Amino acid sequence: MKDYYSALELNRSASSTEIKSAFRRLSMHLHPDVNGGSRYFEEKFKEINEAYHVLADARKRQAYDIIVWHAAANPQANWQTSTQASAPKPNRQRAVYRRVYRPDIEALRLEREYTRVFWVVTLVISVVVFSGLWAFSHL
Q: Any idea what DSSP says for residue 33?
């Protein structure tokens, strides 16, 4: 059985504010993004995250303390919570994402491009025409 108190570097009589501050302090130092994605820090971060979620909730903490106390009293027993004993292992396959060709988005992009070209050409023609009319009127 994991010792969540030692994972958060606390004693058993720690208050909820002490648990929260210890978790925040350790999570800032052990976060995988801060430490370059190291596997070791990732595992340590998961461990303190699990410890915090158990010790921060009063009901889970009470159940954890009872289980740990019984495990300490009878070390030969194989103590498992009901969720540990019956939970199936998750399938850890990575999801495969495929790029989906969407012709409607492509058509909208082309339409926007053609509209932009139309307005540029219209502007150029109007400048040429009006500059020619201005030059003709000032002869």
A: T
